[in-house]
Amino acid sequence: MRKFLNILVIVFIVTVFFTNDEAKAYINPGSGSYIFQTVIGGILSILYFFKKIFISVINLFKPKNKTTKSESVNE
Q1: 52 within a domain of the structure (yes/no)
Q2: What are the CA-CA distances from residue 49 to residues 22, 35, 55, 61, 68 (Å)?
Q3: Is residue 31 part of a domain?
Q4: What is the pTM of this model?
Q5: In a domain, 9, yes or no
Q6: Structural domain contains residue 45
Q7: Tell me: the pLDDT tens digits for 34-46?
């Protein structure tokens, strides 16, 4: 199954890059800015996701403080 998928991907790439048809398409400025916004939003969301994972991993290894705020006030 994996070999079939690899061959399928290679055939797709060869077909896309070696067909010389002209693209008869137009991207207006509004679409361009929308694409730009989605790319930037995707990048920022991925960075935020990994930041949250990093912080949770760091918190696993931090020592826990056994004294609470009320105990330290009474002393």
Answers
A1: yes
A2: 39, 21, 10, 19, 31
A3: no
A4: 0.46
A5: no
A6: yes
A7: 989 999 999 999 9
